[in-house]
TrEMBL record:
Annotated organism of origin: Actinocorallia aurantiaca
InterPro entries xref list: K_chnl_volt-dep_bsu_KCNAB-rel, NAD(P)_OxRdtase_dom_sf, NADP_OxRdtase_dom
PANTHER family linked: HYPERKINETIC, ISOFORM M (PTHR43150)
Name of this protein: Aldo/keto reductase family protein
KW Oxidoreductase (keyword) present: yes
Length: 333
């Protein structure tokens, strides 16, 4: 495993991280979830990403139990706040009340005194940004989080938060967690240039486009039984964004490119996002330990410029560069 700095901070994270969005607490049994976490650790992954909303808080609990007994200083544990975790009017958003109560709940479920990175899971248009930033600052000052980041924020939102931090002397955002893959490149036009200038790193999710870039979904054929596209609990609606025959046919044309690079399709997809110098880590998920062992082989891979150009030629107009081009999965938690 190789490691990269998270943005312009001094924090190093594994360039492949393990996330448990739609697996822990919902898709797989806990013993399988624990086996996946332990497989990640065995492969050198030290960075683990979750959120309070995943599986209605159960995902944090499962991850905490799976990591119990590990040397805390050797891990980077990330979680997030924003989406509803209860029925009350203050059980959501980025108000000071919700942030301060949510960090305590996350720490309790994770079984740790602090998280390495606390992230705003989306931008809150109903709460003053300065209130949010001051609450995050206090979370850091209290030692409950070491760094702060955001997820799926637009360039202008990140810029506004950085300006407040500079003016008030608050801790700066060091990361953004966007969707990013060969098929979904929305961040490239505005978010990445801003973040490169400001020292904010990307921790990207869905680098394999929810399994579509593995090539297992074939045009004109029903999804394989038990795959994510057939399981409502594991995001079938999310995968459907990519399940058009014209997209699946383009993905199949990537097979010879992966073979030429000596990689599986999944490894090629993960390696592709890691070629972007602003990407600090690619999040992978898994419902079986062997998926982790396969995907981590993308770590340290350097793809030639000619191969990257051919990927662009193959995918062509199947690539999404503007969220208006599709009902973006980025709107989902």
């Amino acid at each position: 495993m190789e490691f990269r700095y998270l943005g312009r901070s001094g924090l190093k994270i594994s360039e492949i991280s393990y996330g448990n969005w739609i697996t822990h607490g919902s898709q797989v049994e806990e013993d399988t979830a624990v086996a996946c976490v332990h497989a990640a650790l065995d492969e050198g992954i030290t960075t683990f990403d979750t959120a309070d909303v995943y599986a209605a808080t159960r995902a944090e609990t499962v991850l905490g139990r799976a990591l119990k007994g590990q040397r805390r200083e050797s891990l980077e544990i990330f979680t997030k706040v924003y989406w509803p975790t209860g029925k009350g009017p203050n059980d959501r958003g980025l108000s000071r009340k919700h942030i301060m109560e949510s960090i305590n709940g996350s720490l309790r479920r994770l079984g740790t005194d602090y998280v390495d990175l606390y992230q705003a899971h989306r931008f809150d248009h109903e709460t003053p940004l300065e209130e949010t930033m001051r609450a995050f600052e206090d979370v850091v000052r209290q030692g409950k989080a070491l760094y702060i980041g955001v997820s799926e924020w637009r360039a202008e939102e990140i810029s506004a938060a950085l300006k407040i931090a500079e003016e008030r002397g608050f801790d700066r955002i060091i990361s953004n967690q966007p969707q990013y893959s060969m098929l979904y490149r929305v961040i490239e036009e505005e978010v990445v240039p801003l973040c490169e200038r400001e020292g904010v790193g990307q921790i990207v999710w869905s680098p394999i486009a929810q399994g579509v870039l593995t090539g297992k979904y074939l045009p004109g054929q029903a999804p394989p039984p038990g795959s994510r596209a057939t399981d409502d609990k594991s995001g079938a609606d999310f995968v459907k964004v990519w399940m058009r025959d014209e997209i699946l046919a383009r993905v199949q044309e990537l097979q010879p490119l992966a073979k030429e690079a000596g990689l599986t399709m999944a490894q090629l997809a993960v390696a592709w996002v890691l070629q972007n110098p602003n990407v600090s880590s690619a999040i992978i998920g898994a419902s079986r330990p062997e998926q982790i062992r396969d995907n981590v082989k993308a770590a340290g891979t350097r793809l030639e410029a000619g191969l990257l150009a051919r990927v662009d030629e193959v995918l062509g107009d199947a690539v999404v560069r503007d969220p208006a081009e599709t009902r973006s999965p980025a709107t989902r938690p």
